[in-house]
Amino acid sequence: MTYRLSDDQRLLSESVRAFFTGTHPPQSVRQAASEGHVAATVRQGLVEMGLTRLLVPEAHGGLGLGFLEGALVAREAGRVCLADPLLEAALVAAPWLASRGQTDALDAISEGRSQAPLAHEANPWVLGGGGDRLDSIDPLRRLTTAPQVRSDDALLLNIGALMTAAELVGLAEAMLEQACAYAKVRQQFGQPIGAFQAIKHQLANCAVCLEFARPVVWRAACALQDGTPTAPLHVSHAKVVATDAAWSTAETAIQVHGAMGYTYEVDLHFWMKRSWALAGAWGHRDFHLNRIDAALIGGDVPVGPSFTFI
Amino acid sequence: MTYRLSDDQRLLSESVRAFFTGTHPPQSVRQAASEGHVAATVRQGLVEMGLTRLLVPEAHGGLGLGFLEGALVAREAGRVCLADPLLEAALVAAPWLASRGQTDALDAISEGRSQAPLAHEANPWVLGGGGDRLDSIDPLRRLTTAPQVRSDDALLLNIGALMTAAELVGLAEAMLEQACAYAKVRQQFGQPIGAFQAIKHQLANCAVCLEFARPVVWRAACALQDGTPTAPLHVSHAKVVATDAAWSTAETAIQVHGAMGYTYEVDLHFWMKRSWALAGAWGHRDFHLNRIDAALIGGDVPVGPSFTFI
Amino acid sequence: MKLQYTPEQQAFRAEVRAWMAAHVPKEPLLTLEGRQGYDQHVAWERELAGGNWGMVTWDEAYGGRGLNLIEWLIFEEEYWAAGAPLRVNQNGIFLLGPTIMDVGTAKQKARFLPPMARGETIWAQAWSEPNAGSDMAAITCRADRDGDHYVLNGQKTWSSRGAFADWAFGLFRSDRDSKRHKGLSFIVFDLNSPGITRRPIRQLHGNPGFAEIFFDNVRTPVENRLGGEGDGWNVAMATAGFERGLMLRSPGRFQAAAQRLIELYRANASHAAPSTREAVVRAWSAAQAYAYNTYAVAADIMAGGRIGAESSLNKIFWSELDRAMHRTAMHLLGAGAELRRFADGAVNDWLEGYVFSLSGPIYAGSNEIQRNIVAERLLGLPRAGAG
Amino acid sequence: MKLQYTPEQQAFRAEVRAWMAAHVPKEPLLTLEGRQGYDQHVAWERELAGGNWGMVTWDEAYGGRGLNLIEWLIFEEEYWAAGAPLRVNQNGIFLLGPTIMDVGTAKQKARFLPPMARGETIWAQAWSEPNAGSDMAAITCRADRDGDHYVLNGQKTWSSRGAFADWAFGLFRSDRDSKRHKGLSFIVFDLNSPGITRRPIRQLHGNPGFAEIFFDNVRTPVENRLGGEGDGWNVAMATAGFERGLMLRSPGRFQAAAQRLIELYRANASHAAPSTREAVVRAWSAAQAYAYNTYAVAADIMAGGRIGAESSLNKIFWSELDRAMHRTAMHLLGAGAELRRFADGAVNDWLEGYVFSLSGPIYAGSNEIQRNIVAERLLGLPRAGAG
Lengths: 310, 310, 387, 387
Prior knowledge:
The complex is a heterotetramer, with 2 copies of chain A and 2 copies of chain C.
Chain A: H1 7-23, H2 26-35, H3 40-48, H4 67-79, H5 86-99, H6 106-110, E1 118-119, E2 126-127, E3 130-135, E4 142-146, E5 149-150, H7 154-185, E6 187-188, E7 191-192, H8 197-211, H9 214-226, H10 231-257, H11 268-280, H12 285-298
Parallel strand pairs in A: 1-5
Antiparallel strand pairs in A: 2-4, 3-4, 6-7
Helix pairs in contact in A: 1-4, 4-7, 4-9, 5-7, 7-8, 7-9, 7-10, 7-11, 8-10, 9-10, 10-11, 10-12
Chain C: H1 7-23, H2 35-50, H3 69-81, H4 90-103, H5 106-117, E1 123-126, E2 142-146, E3 149-159, E4 167-173, E5 184-190, E6 196-202, E7 208-221, E8 225-226, H6 232-247, H7 251-268, H8 274-302, H9 310-333, H10 349-357, H11 367-378
Parallel strand pairs in C: 1-4
Antiparallel strand pairs in C: 2-3, 3-7, 4-5, 5-8, 6-7
Helix pairs in contact in C: 1-3, 3-7, 4-5, 4-6, 6-9, 7-8, 7-9, 8-9, 9-10, 9-11
């Protein structure tokens, strides 16, 4: 029993963070939004870093890592509001296809050539498929109506929800940092607004929310990796707390930014829009709340102090 | 259409407030709690002020006033945490008995001799009846299991819930005032704690809550008085918002008082305990929430801008 | 208290309802933040004026109907019940108009009010500056007296309607040596004056919204000052009181949203979480409470009262209600919440409304400032020392 | 990350469970705030010590079992799952004990820890003073050096366990000319020393709770100082870190409450509002999240980390969770919520728990102070100037 990232997992997080910080600044988000697609260099970088084959089995030339490593990368993608559907292709589609023995498409994902759009009844639209284009509030989500594959398999939903939860944690972290940075420099009434308790305490509430969302997401990743029977419950728990953290941090962050937060010029809105979109993706908030409800109140999941890890 | 208390109604409120302020200071609450009953002079004063016969029909020697006047007095009773079951006897039992033509008991109520305890399935215990004594957290509520009369009549419930809502508004107002008074004098870090935004904004939230609870209660009183078909909806609305206002103000007020609020020495606890008790009386919070829910979502109550007054 | 309408009031409601049914555009207008939508909304103002509905509370001499505030509320209720467009001239009719009525000279009233009621002059507000947002007393825009003119210099920002409107109003420092709340004057000016440059600000959803306004020796006659020279702060606070208080957000708008939310809930009940169900119930409850409170404020004003710091309670309440209602709708929409247009092509106006609702707690004085006002002015708590 | 218990850990859990099943009193004890209940709780501490469960993480030399923090968490889980009594000596074992372990001399450890683990010495805390609550640096109680003794004078208040405990610890100003955080020393003292007067404070529910402690030239030897003279603030902050952080409120207590709340919900589902249903779900969710976080903190400490300002996040979370859970239970109880005892004579421990939960956001550093700490120390926001 060790509730702590391993040295390898920490190293992975740190190196991905350093890579994204260097290659994917807010300017690249802005550029991808205005040009309608991500720069080819970004995609190439993801391939070179091995992120596209992170969860591809070693037998198929991948790194063969697990859901926790995938979630750690998804969080980093959220932190920089990654302008690429890495999550859907490499962190959701690849491990699910591999688990189903559908290995044909893995090479294309590894090489960054395919987004392998997969749909599920709880996630009806896909990134980069065919069919009609849908217009998301997130300018970086190129939603379409026709998936490459559609499956209502539970594992697919759970992988999608887990990775989305992890990305939401990263989005919330970034929005909190943006709001704090602004609160330190914006002056009103002769002092930085971050010196006012009204601002401090709102931001502190976001920090509390995040502190108690992160471990739920890692726990869900482990449960899915370990094949724990209650993994769906933990995934839903993760999706709900991550959504709540991102949503409330977004509302706080724009409030702290004041009218500036309402402009296109400030980066915050990209992160907010991604958060709003992901709240509904791979099972919306109420879907996952009801799944927890059914397990706890209607179901027979053991609860109590002896069952921290069920 | 005039959403404004008449001069007579204002005068009634002001004179009752002046009377209570003079005759029913916090010390009398404390004394009643320690002696187990209210001082005879308090009861006598209520009779002399005419408050026991406020809602008794003129034909039976009463003042023949309406539910709104009753609610205004109930609010004043809440403000001083009245150590007498005036509300149950004179503001609930009297008008209901009169409406049912059961006028025998009215004289005893008018003269302050009877508490005429009435029970309802949503309000199973009564003040001052017979049977077993139950121990309420509110030391001033002498609860017993055997009512004089039990009726599951809807009007009885609605009158009880309305008056309770009005008392809760008064309790919340008083707790907010107590907390503000303390915040002005208690010094920490070299200034009154009320100068800190963290305190200010919590108290401001209570003020918002109250500002938008009061008119709902007056509206429910008018609806009941006018026999509006949707009166039960409005009464439930009033009970819910008044309960929420009192409950959240209580939590804020004790927080502002810090450890002092946790002592018997500070008066606040009497008001908190009454609030907790009344939250459950005459239909608890969830009962009334569900009644609104049933009317709005399941029912066919007209909603929208054209139906402010339905 | 008397919560029944008179037969005359009921007849008036029927009249408004019938007119709206006949005139409200069947298709929603484009957003008033864009040129085309702005023009559509101006045309709608003029259509309203054709029915003599520009501002029903004003005297007939000023283009109104001389009605009282209860009738105004009835008008607003039916306006929103009919799904009529946003009022592109709300800065004029709801904010500046009452201020002119309050402190304007007879000449100013005659000059400014009728074209406002007719929708001929559309107004922008110009309160904020880059370094004077929540701290409005930090204003540095200057109005230097030069004979019978003021010469305006400086920069305003976050001007709503600033991109396309005809005229604007704001505070300027008419005493160069003054500080904070003193030495400011309330001045209205033609946005097409020489020396004015307007730059629309791109809002987060990508559309232009409010504007920056740059003043380079803009001359405006002294008669365009409202109230006394140096008395601008007090005049503005009266305007802000109206804004936050009675008129800026009439209850009908929220009641209409609550009504739509109930319908949305019924259509999505099967996958809604319990808290979402209750949030729908709470939306109706809060919108109704807001309506009752507005009727109460209207009755107080009709009895000779004035709106004071209570308007801050109002501002906090409606802005947070609006955000909560739209947030609830977003939860109900689930996967579809992110779509700007649904698969059937219909605009997702819950999403647009949610984004718009996020500005509510910020603009017209942030809710943090409002809570300070409530605490200090209504609850009597001390101003901060070191805090 | 490895979220499975080892066979040894599972065996340890079984051992705790079996011992608790055999020893936990069948009837709930009286409240530890009264004399009789206090004595019952002290007897329970000694029974625990008889099973060598006093403080499992301490070395065997000090009366412990030399176990690690994961095993401590397993112990706590089974302790709360068994419905065992509150720990009357928590000020000792969870707050002072770790501090002694951290900064105490070998002699102090040998002297104070074993009787603490055996439940022979029960400890009170004595932090606050009438004018030093949230602002603890305003402490004025003095410890004047007189040879190899300190002479204590002044008044402490809100001392939990102060009415009946044997010993206490607190901060005293050992440098008369010092101000604020400097010049304080962390001193432990025998509550039965000459010159000490204790006065129980009547709590809101009418029972005595914490106590006032008056010092009139109380002599305590210098060897009773923990850490350096004048270094008391830092020593205390370490204690406060433990208090707010890992040990004061172990997750099992909240998980047990969430479990009971689910049962209460099922019994009352027919009249519960939707929000109440979701609050029950949220109670489990939050208690689990708190447990995960505690395991993560324990793993960090085992890997050589220390608890810093993160403990403030913890304090805010558990105190508001506890209040929310009990508030939800009160709603579920409906008309019965106000009863101290139900009609069947059973104590309404939800009501007691709700009242107790109201102290959570106040004590051990109010949540307002905690939010300041989070904002300034974790988020790097500036300290207030004029605010």
